Amino acid sequence: MAKKNTFSSLENLRSLSISSGAVFLGPWTGIGHEKFLIVAGVAKDRILVCSVMINSQINQYIFKRPKMLACQVELKGKDYVFLSHDSYANCAQPIKAKLDLFMVDDLKYCGLLNEQDLAQVQQQIISSGSLTAEEIAMFFGE
To answer: Model-level pTM greater than 0.85?
Structure first.
């Protein structure tokens, strides 16, 4: 007899949502307020994710650095129910983290990026020069 899958814990449900394009809202270490985080890529053979933060506006520090400015991806508020206004994915500084980062009670799954925005986020992360060739292959299969 086949074993029936049951999802009795929030951790099991949350881990199903951790895929490329997933957006979460929560408190993050080192940031004094809640922020959105995009899962840009998930390593298949390791428990790591590559993700980026969403900001309401582009920081003045970034405006003075053309390479970082080129790595900001505009996300239209009208395209996402979880955004109240146009925002920016900061792809200049991808975050490599263990899956455990997403297994906290006060984290909220918000939805998925559309395919076009996800592709642009992933391309800007690759173009940023912040990941090694091995990391690019691990997270994005390129």
So the answer is: no
